[in-house]
Amino acid sequence: MPEPLKYNKKFDELNEEEKKLLEINKKTIADFVEQSSCISDVNYATRNAHAKTYAAAAGTFFIDKNIPEELLPYFDGEQFDLTIRLSNANLKIKNNGKDVPAYGFAVKIKDENGGLIANFPLVNFPLFPMNSVSHFLKLFTAVNRFYIKKWSSFFSLAGQAIKVIPNICTLSFIRNIFRLIGKRNDFILSFDYHSVGAYRLGDYMIKIKLVPDSVHKKFGRKLKIRTALKNYFQEHDYTADVMIQLCYDLKDQPINKLNVEWKNSPYIHIGKLKINKDALLDPDSCTNELLSFNPFESKIFFQPVGKIQKLRDEAYKVSVQTRRKINKLLHGKSFEL
């Protein structure tokens, strides 16, 4: 195996302007979460991204016995327990009409004592439409304000959205948009899932991909997604290959350029993810809405890498703290999901 590049904290460093914009953004995140029950018309505070929970489940991660020797120190067991959340990326929960097929597959990996090893929020679109931290923060702030203040913030949102256009005009991005359009009606479990940006694997830097085994893309096509998932897990197990790419060269595997796919880095199979049939957690339990999949709560050698990723640290903390403050008052009751 060629020698991968080593992690350096400089990949994560924000400049002073970006830090100031992040503080503004954090305030709008807290405001959004505080008003999220009204925004989504539910009786609990929602996340400010991936607000809608389709299902939560228990799973298992089985380690491949043939992974490269260099990676063995990071996978020191034969299997690990998982908690998994399937979601929609929209900030607002829609209960009417068809959801945009922007799905999340968040994975919590635990040790034999139930302690957290790592959180990996995966999504069904491998790229991110922003490379500039400043532009992203301004756009995300404008989106939050739009949901809170409605049309009085429309022109600010539109102005920031226009700045995204150059970033989605790459060959990689256009190809993946057309691929998603072609799969827009497919079953949620038939998609591949990807890490947005890179993560540490000790001193190495990686991207993650989840590839399902033999899930029929037309399963439950006429059903709501929650119902389709419930029906699927009454009859089937779900298994998927867990693959990683290593960063060897920043030209081919850029850390802070998220709108292009990595190339010249072969996928390495590291294991299998499995959700047994009948393993869905109680869909009406408020515990599901208290779950956090903050990747910065992971052990240090599994944490995110990159400037856009770094923003998620503070954003997750604000969102989770605000959401839990509100929802813990409802703990023990059932949410109307």
Characterization of this structure:
This is Catalase. InterPro entries: Catalase_sf. By secondary structure, the protein is of the alpha+beta class. The chain has a single domain (9-330), classed as Catalase core domain (Catalase HpII,  Chain A, domain 1, Beta Barrel), CATH 2.40.180. Helices cover 29% and strands 22% of the residues. Strand 6 and strand 7 form a beta hairpin. Helix 1 (16-40) packs parallel to helix 7 (307-327).
Relevant terms:
337 residues, 7 helices, alpha+beta, single chain, Catalase HpII,  Chain A, domain 1
Helix and strand topology:
Layout: H1 16-40, E1 52-63, E2 79-88, E3 103-110, E4 116-123, H2 133-149, H3 154-162, H4 171-182, E5 193-195, E6 198-201, E7 204-212, H5 225-235, E8 238-246, E9 268-275, H6 287-290, E10 304-305, H7 307-327
Antiparallel strand pairs: 1-2, 1-9, 2-3, 3-4, 4-5, 5-7, 6-7, 6-10, 7-8, 8-9
Helix pairs in contact: 1-2, 1-7, 2-3
Number of self-contained structural domains: 1
Spatial order of the strands forming the largest sheet:
1-2-3-4-5-7-8-9
Q: Uncertain spans, ≥5 residues at pLDDT below 50?
A: none
Shape: globular
Report how far apart the termini are: 48 Å
Query: What is the number of helices?
Result: 7
Query: Can you identify the CATH superfamily?
Result: Catalase core domain
Structural class: alpha+beta
Helix content: 25-40%
Radius of gyration: 19 Å
Mean pLDDT: 90
State which percent range the strand residues make up. 15-25%
CATH topology descriptor: Catalase HpII,  Chain A, domain 1
Protein name: Catalase
InterPro entries: Catalase_sf
